[in-house]
Amino acid sequence: MIKLLACLFIIGSLTWIGHEYAKNLANRPRFIRLFKNALQILEAEIVYSQATIKESLTIVAEQIPNPISTLFKNIAEDIQQDKEQLFPIWERHVDKFYHKHPLQLEDKEILQQFGRTLGQHDVIQQQKYIRLTINHLERKLTEAEEKNHRYGKMSRSVGFLVGTFIVLLLL
Fold it and tell me: Would you say which domain of life the source belongs to (predicted)?
């Protein structure tokens, strides 16, 4: 009886790991799309509304769904509280976001590179940096969609098959 429960536990846990990996593969393109949308809204607010960075981030937070809206909202609130430069605040919040959500290191680096330029230049230069970041995110979005398409369904099956293989080896 204990062997049967152990076998079911091994198969179930490895199947669950495969499903979680597939879920992360599926969620990454969604997060990248949301970041692209957020940057497009930020661009419109900075360029056309001539809003401050804090106001622009707050407006983006109101128009984008969670959890990205929470990221922009928290950055805007920290700008209000602290008198430090924007990049350390941006970097701290992007790091926290990266560890909780299905983004890869390249996505985090693109966002942090953008954070270095945010608020450092005039409106036209800022618009160029936003467009450059959006182009980088579009490239990563294509890669993420291809990876999800290629490995998403397979990872679910591989989790189950590896679990079954390990059980067969142990018996």
Answer: Bacteria
